[in-house]
Design a protein that fits this description.
Rossmann fold, two-stranded antiparallel sheet, binds adenosine-5'-triphosphate, binds magnesium ion
Amino acid sequence: MIVAITGTPGVGKTSVCSHLRELGFQVIDINKLVSERFHKGFDNKRRCFVADLRKLRRHVKRIHKSAAKEKQDNRRKHILLLDSHISHLLHPDVAIVLRANPLELAERLRRKGFEERKIKENVQAETLDVILVEAVERCKFVYEIDTTGKSVEAVAECVREILSALREHTEERRKEMLAKYEVGGVDWSEYVEDVFAHCDDC
Ligand SMILES: Nc1ncnc2c1ncn2[C@@H]1O[C@H](COP(=O)(O)OP(=O)(O)OP(=O)(O)O)[C@@H](O)[C@H]1O
Ligand SMILES: [Mg+2]
């Protein structure tokens, strides 16, 4: 099973994936792959590499196939986590979208050293559910985790709960375990006015 850990920059994907890696999960750092090999050049305006999604998808499938073979797992059983805000575009079996309250997200991005323009752009995207909508449009199974006020370890535990629900339980039990992660549980609409106040571009 290929699982995208996605969400707006700053929601904590890499922090959570690092913790899950320590717990024994296989994780691919998609952003690193994009900057090293799987890109179609550098976008000077956005100051980032343009991902080559087609090649990335093939690469991810290959890694998953050979890891499952090595572990003698079937492909459904072997979990490969993809860490990136574009991982939901790579045809995963499941997308888990990490969410963060816009005010808390701004703080996290500030701590991460993002410039104010980028903070504003990402906070607006989070408030409008941009990544969530993209994930729902492309993936059959999508779940959300609200990371607000949760430690990295607690968020990782939520990911593990989703994964174990998907793998091991009866339909009824699965529904019960996944109920709190269903799409629609996170709603930042009360922040829209503040986040878009004095917005020159809209
Ligand atoms: N659950 C959390 N609670 C508080 N702070 C967090 C949490 N998770 C991550 N952080 C902090 O938020 C910042 C962003 O985290 P991280 O780099 O993991 O985000 P990301 O989603 O991988 O971002 P990007 O898309 O830019 O790679 C870091 O400074 C990190 O320490
Ligand atoms: Mg990251």
